[in-house]
Amino acid sequence: MSVNEDVLEHHVHQLDEKVDRVEGQAAAPTGRCKSPGMLSHIWELFERPDPNSKPKNPLTLLKLSPCQAYTFSVAFLGWMVDAIDYFCVSMSTTELADTFGVEPSRITSALTVTLMLRPVGALAFGIIADRYGRRIPLMVNLFLFTMVELASGFAQNLSMFVGLRAVYGILMGGEWGLGNSLAMEALPVESRGIFSGILQEGYAVGNLIAAMLYYAVVPTLGWRALYWISIIPAVVTIALAFFLHETNAWKQARQAQRASAKPYYQIVLNMLKEHWLRCIHAILLMAAMNFLSHGSQDLYPTFLKKQHGFSPKQATIGTVVGNIGAIVGGTFFGYISEYLGRRRTIAICAICGACFVPLWILPSKFSLLLVGAFCMQVFVQGAWGVIPVFLSEISPEGFRATFPGLAYQLGNLISASASQIEATMGEKNPLPELRDGDKVPDYARVQGILIGAIYCCVLILAVVGREAKGKSFALDDRTDAISDEVHKHAAMGSGARDSSAKGSIDSESGKQAALPLASARSSQNIPAV
Description:
With about 525 residues, the protein is mostly helical. It has a single domain (about 60-465), classed as Growth Hormone, Chain: A (Up-down Bundle), CATH 1.20.1250. It is built from 26 helices and two strands. Strands 1-2 form a two-stranded antiparallel sheet. Strand 1 (about 430-435) and strand 2 form a beta hairpin.
């Protein structure tokens, strides 16, 4: 369709002015999000929450339609399966090191490689999902990393194992953006917070299942069987994903993509030009959050076994208790973020979590370490419970699979060395006393320093950022308004610029369309196919 772009640009500009004049600074309730980093907005975190905005009954928020529940369940299971496969490595670090004849720090290189390559998958699968749909890419992703997980159990040396985990990292990087966009687009606005926490804790549930599988399988069948058995949940998830339907939000975006005349690369460049500061902030926040989660989880079983001399059974119990805390924290703080706000909730978790670092690493009694692990993961995953909805809401339109997934995984890339730093520094700085004539790595000191510093970074980034709580993902109004104007100006031509713009603005329909169209304008146009 041939359209006079100057006319449409003029009309959109007038609509933007109308919105600013009528609505003033009412952007926040509509979910519009400007770039983060403006220090003038720090004060928002210290304001009292709106007394008229009471937390809703969580049981009411948990009620979904069958289609919404099914879509969310598949997204949750996909992320859970990812976590099971990922934590198979951290659970079996000691056994892998013995099999391949290397130090545990060499095994953690497999974790590092996995994390480093996740942005590749996030970018590739995110672009495909935003342009062509979420369902098929999700099924392909799950199938491929199931094959890689199966092959990992047959690895004959460390190089082969690390190579397989590198491929797995690409596939794992793609899954989170796919599942998160599916879930957040399918959910009611008021239910996003609590389900964001539940979705992210698919990671903790996967960690929990991996720990139980380790305890049940490895002592009798060995570490290889752990990788083979762990593909069973993935096969079930693939079968369920086959019956998924694309979300209405994506279908509407697809229609807008077809109507756009701009090439995709230009849309991406325009988005980066307008939202570059938002992108940088999201990546830095995700780097800090990933340092927090991987630094507090990946090496913890090794810390319990090698520094404290606890049995594999006790290490498994510690992991299970920590993940129970993670599930509780993620769900609760995801829910409460609907009342407190996303950034304030993350900041509270950072402050409270830092207070429990000593209890997490210093006690010699196993029972006290369990309490510390539980409390630590309540706040680590409490902050993480807000992340899926936070990233989805600040995403520019048309990039809801790419933006959150890529920001998340670029943060993973920056934090990829977390477990390796802890393992290497712990081995280079052993405890003064020997155990059975061998040096004992001082993992506790390294973990304490790292996690304490990262909590400070999370707090700062949460304070200086911005959020778009309650942003509408529905494109019906915006798509209709843009489509109407395109058809109108295509028919009337450039000669009708003044009368068309004036008539639209002064009319009742113009008033209704002003805010959605300005919102679409601020997000950059939906990508073209």
